[in-house]
Design a protein that fits this description.
By secondary structure, the protein is α+β, with helices and mostly antiparallel strands. The protein has two helices and eight strands, in the order βββαβββββα. It is a multi-pass membrane protein.
């Protein structure tokens, strides 16, 4: 995925770099299609003998729609040309892009932390 630019209501722009390195769901599924395989008799016998059973391929198309509110948590930099850029933190801190607001994202992260703490105690 290539970097993209987000525009605010006041026409302020923020360039988002490395969106695939971000945690969180920030795209919406716009198309989902399942393709069943067409296999020959020889392929069927081969799969039967190997124990594999191909079901097919699931094709999912996702995109960030125009007008979507996006919350980003990462490192903000101001480039020499005046461009504000959101990128993964240089100190390896978490990098988030999410469709939810900051409070929900924080609560979600706290719940995950509590889960792992409880699991570590058990």
């Amino acid at each position: 995925m290539v970097p993209f630019v987000l525009f605010g209501l006041d026409k302020a722009a923020v360039k988002v770099q490395s969106p695939l390195h971000a945690d969180g769901m920030y795209t919406e599924v716009i198309n989902e299609k399942f393709h069943q395989p067409t296999l020959s008799f020889g392929e069927l016998v081969g799969f039967y003998l190997s124990g594999e059973k191909p079901k097919g391929v699931l094709e999912i198309e996702e995109m960030l729609k125009v007008g979507t509110t996006l919350t980003g948590i990462g490192e903000l930099t101001l480039d020499t040309d005046g461009t504000v850029t959101l990128r993964p933190p240089s100190d390896n801190s978490p990098y988030f892009l999410s469709l939810t607001d900051f409070e929900n994202l924080r609560n979600e992260s706290c719940n995950i932390a509590v889960f792992w703490k409880v699991l570590a105690v058990v």
